[in-house]
Amino acid sequence: MAAAKAYRKKPIDIAQDVVNKASESGMFSEITAVMPGFVNIRLKEEWLAGYMNGMASSEKLGIESPEKAETIIVDYGGANVAKPLHVGHLRAAIIGESVKRMGSFLGHNVIGDVHLGDWGLQMGLIIEELRDRKPELPYFDENFQGEYPKEAPFTISELEEIYPAASGKAKEDESFKERAQNATFKLQNGYAPYRAVWNHIMNVSLADLKKNYSNLNVHFDLWKGESDAQPYIPGLIQDLIDKGLAYESQGALVVDIAEETDAKELPPCIVRKSDGAALYATSDLATIVEREQDFHPDRYIYVVDKRQDLHFTQVFRVAKKAGIVDSDKKMIFLGFGTMNGKDGKPFKTREGGVMRLERLIAEIDEAVFGRIMENRTVSEEEAKETAKIVGLSALKYGDLSNQASKDYVFDVDRFISFEGNTGPYILYTIVRIKSILGKYGEISKESSILPAVSEAEKALQLEISKYNEVLENSFAETAPHKICQYIYDLSNACNRFYHDTKILTEENKEQRESWLCLIRLAKEVLEVCIDLLGIEAPERM
Description:
four-stranded parallel β-sheet; 20 helices; 11 strands; 52% helix
């Protein structure tokens, strides 16, 4: 119907032309054109079985390498050092990890960068709070000679307590705030004692962040931060001035980004404040300069809170206007919505504070452990290990199954349910298939998938056949929720087939092994897909 105007023909005539051409292919048992311009298709069972066997015997189940493998930077995570990970960090981490895994699996060179907040006023605040608490430390003795200690003068828990205390103090005490600003300035200008404190903060924080991200099954290729971009800022500013793009406005240096096609007025991008300080935009632009120099990426994907939309519109436009990146380079802003409680407000602890990620994971693991122990078929020890795997799947799937840009309600009871569109339901389907295959034992090597003999079997084969298209589209649209929808539909098709088919009691060995080959292929598809979501399946549940 969409082609009718272009070809100046009736939709039904175009449909009939398609039918005439396609009916020679041998794929279809039935293909007909119907008014006003639809094409109805039934695939031949023999052709579909052949496609299943082709998938089963090929690498990556038939995913082909891209014509041109791209180098892609995925900027996600965005945690601040010296602060614990909390629920607000969850979406950036797991959406970004999934996007990175999808791109890598499809054959691209994908580089994940955590892009830490490690260079702002928070550093000066920590330094000055440390001075008040431990004035005897060598970093605060101007006459100190020699090397600074290798051991940090604080643990991660002390550091996590120091920052909020300093932040609170700066709001009450103007002179403390000024000291912190001065300390930040000295740090950023290379003052050795403060650089030594900063290195301690970084080492202690990174060890803790790596542990916590690892517990989420999230892994970065680069652990760069805002500090890494600093050497590029002076050259960037000068380049913007030399090209006539940056000009002074009320003492600040700004770059216009408005375009004639804009539906609303967009303010200029400030790249230097009136006091000479750089801003987030300056740091983000300098980071792009560094990335272009180090990696020459073909594409950028930023996984950030959707409220940062204007900021990244400004940054991307300045980058293209200044020729830092080519004007046609893909720079994708994947803005995500908020994770809310059942009251519809941003998710908080019962006490009303922001919940630490560690605590959230522990609470979900505990809830899943309780469910597993209700139908106790495994030891307590195994139940605890399984609960960790299933709990993480509940948490990640509960998030990723929503379109990234939408806000969603975090509902533990729904997320840990073994029924419905949930992580545990998907894992339960995989574990059930593993159990059937385990009971049967070795399938003979010459066995293959035969043409479907029931509607449930054909429906399962058709669902499996969507695998390539789903994976390619999900990455092209940076949409992990499409993989979630697919594996939910595939799990439903698996379970319908299982209920309708007596697999292990089938007397015909060839038929029995054909069905086992089919569910094994379904399991492999499900396992690839959950891995792309950063989830794994246990052996038993």
